[in-house]
Every structure is written in C-alpha cells, then in structure tokens.
Design goal:
There is one protein chain. The protein is an alpha/beta fold. The chain has twelve helices and 18 strands. The chain has helices at 77-86, 106-116, 138-143, 166-177, 190-194, 204-210, 213-230, 245-253, 264-268, 290-302, 340-350, 355-369; strands spanning 4-15, 18-27, 30-35, 43-48, 54-57, 59-64, 89-94, 123-126, 128-129, 149-152, 182-186, 233-236, 258-262, 307-308, 386-396, 415-425, 428-432, 435-436.
C-alpha cells in the first residue's frame, strides 16, 4: 500500500504563502500535504523538478471563446483544450458566443455539454448569455450550473447575440441580484462608438479612433451606477482603457461589488508598435498606447484590476483579412490561449514583479471570483492542477506550432520568457511541453456551486 499517489519535489514552489521549497503530496487527485523538500513519503511516483523549474498552480482562464458548436472551424473543444494544456491552463470557462446557438437557454447549454463531453483535455465550465430574449429566464441557467452571465453593451459582432440597452441592463441586473449571480460585461458605450469616426483601411490609428477611451469609461460608469442601485455583482471584461481605473477603484471603496479583468495583449502590446495592416492585432476594445499599458500594469499591481485572462477569440484566416489588412473588415479577436502565462511572465519579470503575483492574477483570483473553490492554488484540499514552469528559458512564437486550430496570433515572431515543461490535471500528467500525454482527454465538465458564499471575494 502506498501512502500517496504522487509527490512533487520543487526547490521553488509557489503557494498562497509565497515561494519556498516544498514537497507536494497528492492522493486521489487532491493535494493532501505540503511538506519540507526532504520529507519522506511512501509514494507510487515521485517527480523531482529541475533547478531551473518552478511548481505553479495551473492557470484558470475564465474568458475563452471555444466557438463550438456552430463555428467549430474557428476553434473547438479538442483544439482549444489541447492549447490550454500545453500552455499550463488546467481550467477554462467557455463564453456563450460565438457558438451557434449561443448559450442563452437550457437547450443550448445541454447541447454545449453534449458537444464538449469526451473532447476536453482540461476542466471546462460554461458562462450563460444575457441577451434580450433570455431576460426573465436567467435563474434556470444559474441553477443548471453556469458560472454567470455575459452581456454586451455594444454590437457583439454576431447577430445571434444582440446587445442589451441600458434599460435591459437594469432589468438583467435586478434579475441576477435576486439569486446573487454575477453579470460579466463587455463595457463599451454604443452611442459613443456610433458617433466616432468609423474604422476604415489599413491604418491602426484610424481603427483606434473608432473605439475611443470614452466608450469604455462611459459604459463602466453606467455599469457601476446600476450595480450600486441593484446590488448585483458585476465584472468588467477585458479592460483596455486605464482611464476607467479611478472610477472602478472608487466604486469598490464604496462597497460596490465590481471586479475587473484585463488581458495579455493589453499588457504586452502598444498602439504605436502595431504595423499598418497588421489585423492580427485587431480586438475590441482595442490595444491602446504605451502609457496606457503602463497604467494598466500599475492598476494590476495596486489590486484595482483583479485578474488576467486570455480572451482567446480566434477565427479562420480569411476572416482576419491578412492579405488586405483592412481593420474595418477584419474580425476582432486575438488568439493567445496557449501563450498567456508566458506572455504575462515576460512582462512581469521585466517590471520587477514575481511569479507569486502572476499566479495570483491568473490562477487564484479567477477561481475565487467565479466559484471554483478547489482550483487555482497549491494548497491542502485543492485539486492537484499543476504547471512545471521554466521561467528563464525563452522561445519564439510560431503560430503554426501552436495547438490553436487556425495559425494566426498577434504574438507571431515574439520572443517570450517562460516555458511550460509539463501540465498536470488532478495529479495526472496531461502535457509534456507542447505534446499531449495520455490516450484520452481527462478534463471534466464543471458546474458552478450555486450555494457558494461569494462575499469573501470582496472583503
């Protein structure tokens, strides 16, 4: 008889208490003990990390567009979760669009689950959609285990997922507050964008002027106001404009239950660096200037921004219009699911930030905010979802070598620090470098715990 199934010995292990030498003992997929590096165990298997490796909690990416069913040519559960595993992601939550049908009712949710079943290399949960036709029936999706509800305040880009106007936003937030759910919001003001100069042609500056900072600031201020009045938990998706940080910090100080995310592309790139016609960089809201990027990093370090997630929003090559380079015609979205951990570490290390910071933003805090209590930490009682990471090794991104279904990414040709050497899900290895391990996908389909106490995430 063995005492534990597997132990990991790492001179550098990142836990909620910081980085230290630890032996991590695992039984039945869960962490059962954190012990000194030289602790003795009767284990069926022992993994000893190299001197250049760090043991991290697996990344929890709560903003991924898998696009299946309906637009599986854009991505899909098999390819998305392979990319996730290769990138150190052990849990993802799938957005309700751009699949067809969107996940806005029970039938669509069950179709999602049937489609994903048996294809997922990592654990997968689902967001529901708040669109005009789904208002009034959100509770049944909540009780069926979605992790919350996404809405747009501006055109989503796909006809089957229309935006909410501000009256409908108020109605949605009152409904969601009744069962203490969370609304996650693409916060750009439609009127501001309608009155801006429309995008046209190959110049990135022209596209940037079509989605001004004021569109984000106006929408976020309205969102805060409705949250203050209704008491509804609200989460701002993919913040790109640092001009909204003061309003967000002030709202939280006043007790408004608002949380915020940003994405690797907003923290890695700057508008002035984007070449003419480089539509692989198009996303909404847009990548802004270098000073704005620095201010987002300051907001992240200060805790105003809670989490960093990929917003992996892929499409087929033809939709990116790469040969034409027209920012008006190209699909907006950046593929980065396999690259997020390395992209953020590359920037964080250059700014004097630590791997403890990175795992807080990309693993622990997303799990806390969205009802994944056994995820995102190397701690007793948590799932043994782990990433063996070589922080000083570098690699150059080649889109064709990634597991994403379509070989296009804004990171093409970029050198990144930090290589994922292996990924482990519930104590079982699922990836060795970029190669998948095992004969069948091991990921589970997750349901939110509707009884979970969320108050602590805003303490």
């Amino acid at each position: 008889m063995t005492d534990v199934d597997i132990i990991f010995r790492a001179a550098r292990t990142v836990t909620p208490d910081g980085e230290a030498p630890r032996t991590v003992a695992v039984r039945n997929g869960s962490i059962v003990e954190l012990a000194p590096l030289d602790a003795s165990f009767d284990a069926a298997r022992e993994v000893v990390l190299g001197a250049d490796e760090v043991l991290l909690a697996g990344v929890v990416d709560t903003h991924v567009h898998v696009n299946e069913p309906g637009r599986t040519a854009w991505e899909g559960f098999a390819t998305a979760t392979r990319a996730a595993a290769a990138g150190g992601v052990t849990t993802l939550v799938d957005m309700p669009l751009n699949s067809i049908p969107p996940t806005c009712d029970l039938a669509a949710l069950e179709l999602k689950r049937r489609t994903a079943d048996g294809l997922c290399h990592v654990d997968v949960g689902f967001w529901g959609g708040a669109i005009p036709r789904s208002l009034g029936s959100l509770r049944e999706l909540h009780e069926a285990g979605v992790f919350g509800f996404k809405c747009f305040l501006v055109d989503s880009g796909v006809d089957e997922f229309p935006a909410l106007d501000y009256q409908q936003l108020d109605r949605a937030m009152r409904e969601i507050s009744e069962f203490d759910g969370v609304l996650i919001v693409h916060a750009e003001d439609a009127d501001t964008i309608d009155n801006a100069t429309p995008p046209h042609g190959r110049a990135y500056d022209d596209f940037l002027r079509s989605r001004p900072d004021t569109a984000e600031v106006t929408a976020i201020e309205r969102l805060i106001d409705v949250s203050r009045r209704t008491g509804c938990r609200v989460h701002v998706l993919h913040l790109s404009s640092a001009l909204a940080l003061d309003a967000l910090a002030g709202a939280r100080a006043d007790g408004v239950r608002v949380s915020v995310e940003t994405c690797p592309h907003y923290l890695s790139f700057a508008a002035g660096e984007i070449p003419t016609g480089a539509t692989q960089f198009k996303c909404c809201p847009p990548i802004r200037g270098g000073d704005n990027r620095d201010a987002l990093w300051a907001g992240l370090a200060a805790g105003t921004i809670d989490v960093v997630v990929s917003d992996h929003s892929p499409c087929t090559l033809d939709l990116k219009q790469l040969e034409i380079g027209d920012f008006a015609a190209a699909w907006g979205g950046i593929s980065s699911l396999q690259l997020g951990l390395s992209a953020i570490w590359s920037q964080a290390r250059a700014r004097g930030l630590s791997l403890s910071d990175v795992t807080r933003w990309m693993s622990a805090r997303p799990a806390e905010l969205f009802g994944l209590p056994g995820k995102g930490r190397i701690a007793v009682g948590h799932a043994a979802d782990l990433c063996v990471f070589a922080p000083e090794e570098t690699f150059t991104v080649h889109a064709a070598a990634l597991h994403h279904r379509n070989p296009v990414t804004a990171y093409e040709g970029r050198e990144l620090h930090g290589v994922v050497r292996s990924t482990w899900l519930a104590g079982e290895q699922i990836a060795a470098g970029s190669a998948l391990v095992g004969s069948a996908p091991r990921g589970q389909l997750l349901r939110a715990d509707v009884e979970a106490d969320v108050e602590q995430v805003f303490d």
